[in-house]
């Protein structure tokens, strides 16, 4: 009933309905007489630029809203009319990645350790797709060609190809890379050892830990049967769909539920995981699967499930006339041209790219065909019009999740916790398998919204580890006052903060204007005042090993240096840049054609 307070089940139904409704389009007609009136009254159509910065509130990402506020102040000083729109994390991602409903936004990009992620991020073939596949609507044939050459390059030629791509992207500025934040987590050393053996943003970080036995109050041996994780993002307890782009960005907990053919180890090398191994013959990869692997419901995992997973991630309608690729893994599997099952535990994949790009396809989750094939049809929700191409797979909360990973789903309470239990039949527990294995009976993931309270839980021995990086403003205190039995874990980040442009319409379709705005971002000032120095400013969105000399940070952006100093713009320099870019500034306001 309208106006009633929903119970928990009703809230989930309503959230799902809202998600479905968000995928529908709306058309607005404009009468001819209104167009004619505008044509007569405003012949030049030159107005002050108005724009909205979309981001998340402080309880979703403190750094993003602070960047947005600082940017608003600078853009207003430059003569623009700027407002900030804050949305919940899932609504933010839905508006940016699915509906493409924004002017500019501030947030974190998932990035990647390999620059091949730029192909899906910027290629024009993805301009109208959902997900991190080109959310900017960027289309440039020169950049397309460079991305394709980079993807096809042999290992010896790849560094040159990557450099050419990065330099072209820096010139076009489809988005403004701001910084790589430093990542800090807390872990107790009195209950588990081995925290530094692997990155906690990967599956291995939660496997192979060594429980430390301790004496309980009664003198009995209590051991460490449960790994207690504190997670500062409630979305994990609201949705367990591995292909949902609104609910999946940071965090690796679903990697404990789902296996992939390969896994990235502590040395950043891709090694066989669910696969025993693979062999290359020209552009074809033959993959041998581990035999006798089971899904959590007892069904056998075979090559048919692997082939289904790649077909399904490519098109969740399984061949309907309106394709619906998954927004989350579409880019990784794009390199797969054909799939052929050659045996119960053997299949062949052929690729149209170089091997580094092809190997990215081996990191997607393997889904049970008997569960997900039934989710290829359109969902039905009374009173909601569902857009064509929207499948049940894209909107389901997937509870309970059925995977084949080292842990299986046990229970959950929305916005409270998720509990997993060790999957006794997982291949990593076999004597003849040399891979990190689950060493605890359970993983209990408690939801706590803030870094400060998460820190208290770990310091007070009520949690063993913080799964997500701590917010920058707490890091100095953590480094100074950590108890002896708590370790601060510092690790590299491959996700980065950025300012994203919607290049589908003016003035952001104009690279000159994007470069102008990029010159109004004082990255050094943001590092000191937003991140308390715990971040690294960047001019290009790749990890240090891939950064070309021409784009190395030297105290300022080498391509779009800040038009001012110490966070304050030089108005004369801004006016000159505005005029040079072909726009107008009347001394107070920056004006553009509507």
From TrEMBL:
InterPro entries xref list: SBP_5, SBP_5_dom
Family assignment from sequence similarity: Belongs to the bacterial solute-binding protein 5 family.
This protein's UniProt keywords: Signal, Transport
CDD domains: PBP2_NikA_DppA_OppA_like (cd00995)
Protein name according to UniProt: ABC transporter substrate-binding protein
GO molecular function, a single term: peptide transmembrane transporter activity
Domain Solute-binding protein family as annotated: residue spans: 269-588
Keyword Transcription: no
Signal among keywords: yes
Domain of life where this protein originates: Archaea
A GO BP annotation: peptide transport
């Amino acid at each position: 009933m309208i106006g009633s307070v929903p119970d928990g089940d009703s809230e989930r139904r309503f959230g799902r309905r809202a998600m479905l409704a968000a995928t529908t389009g709306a058309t607005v007609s404009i009468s001819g007489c209104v167009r004619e009136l505008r044509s007569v009254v405003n012949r030049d159509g030159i107005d002050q630029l108005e724009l909205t910065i979309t981001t998340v509130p402080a309880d979703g990402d403190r750094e993003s809203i602070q960047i947005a506020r600082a940017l608003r102040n600078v853009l207003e000083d430059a003569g623009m009319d700027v407002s900030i729109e804050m949305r919940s994390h899932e609504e933010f991602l839905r508006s940016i990645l699915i509906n493409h409903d924004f002017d500019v936004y501030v947030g974190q990009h998932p990035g990647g350790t390999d620059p091949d992620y730029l192909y899906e991020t910027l290629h024009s073939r993805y301009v109208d797709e959902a997900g991190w596949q080109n959310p900017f609507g960027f289309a440039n044939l020169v950049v397309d060609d460079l991305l394709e050459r980079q993807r096809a390059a042999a290992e010896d030629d790849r560094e040159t190809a990557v450099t050419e791509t990065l330099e072209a992207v820096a010139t076009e500025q489809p988005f403004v890379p701001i910084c790589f934040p430093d990542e800090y987590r807390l872990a107790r050393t009195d209950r588990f050892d081995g925290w530094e053996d692997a990155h906690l943003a990967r599956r291995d970080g939660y496997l192979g830990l060594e429980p430390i036995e301790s004496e309980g109050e009664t003198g009995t041996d209590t051991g460490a049967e449960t790994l207690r994780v504190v997670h500062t993002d409630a979305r994990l307890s609201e949705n367990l769909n591995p292909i949902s782009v609104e609910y999946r960005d940071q965090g690796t907990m679903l990697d404990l539920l789902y296996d992939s053919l390969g896994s990235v180890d502590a040395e950043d090398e891709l090694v066989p995981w669910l696969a025993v191994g693979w062999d290359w013959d020209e552009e074809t990869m033959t993959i041998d699967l581990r035999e006798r692997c089971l899904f959590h419901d007892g069904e056998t995992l075979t090559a048919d499930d692997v082939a289904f997973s790649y077909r399904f991630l490519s098109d969740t309608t399984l061949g309907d006339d309106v394709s619906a690729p998954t927004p989350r893994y579409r880019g990784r599997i794009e390199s797969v041209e054909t799939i052929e099952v050659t045996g119960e535990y053997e299949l062949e994949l052929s690729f149209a790219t170089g091997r580094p790009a092809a190997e990215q396809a081996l990191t997607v989750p393997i889904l049970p065909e008997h569960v997900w094939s039934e989710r290829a049809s359109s969902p039905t929700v009374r009173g909601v019009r569902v857009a064509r191409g929207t499948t049940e797979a894209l909107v389901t909360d997937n509870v309970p999740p059925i995977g084949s990973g080292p842990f299986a789903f046990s229970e959950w309470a929305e916005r409270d916790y998720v509990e997993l239990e060790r999957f006794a039949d997982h291949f990593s527990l076999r004597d003849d398998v040399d891979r990190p294995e689950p060493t605890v009976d359970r993983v209990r993931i408690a939801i706590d919204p803030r870094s400060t309270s998460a820190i208290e839980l770990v310091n007070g021995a009520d949690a063993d580890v913080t799964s997500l990086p701590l917010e920058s403003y707490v890091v100095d205190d953590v480094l100074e006052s950590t108890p002896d039995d708590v370790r601060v874990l510092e690790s590299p980040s491959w996700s980065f903060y950025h300012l994203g442009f919607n290049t589908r319409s003016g003035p952001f379709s104009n690279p000159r204007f994007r470069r102008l705005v990029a010159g109004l971002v004082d990255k050094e000032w943001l590092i000191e005042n937003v991140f308390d120095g715990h971040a690294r400013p960047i001019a290009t969105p790749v990890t240090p090993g891939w950064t070309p000399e021409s784009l190395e940070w030297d105290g300022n952006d080498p391509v779009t240096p800040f038009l001012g100093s110490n966070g304050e713009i030089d108005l004369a320099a801004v006016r000159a840049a505005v005029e040079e870019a072909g726009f107008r500034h009347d001394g107070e306001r920056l004006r553009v054609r509507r």
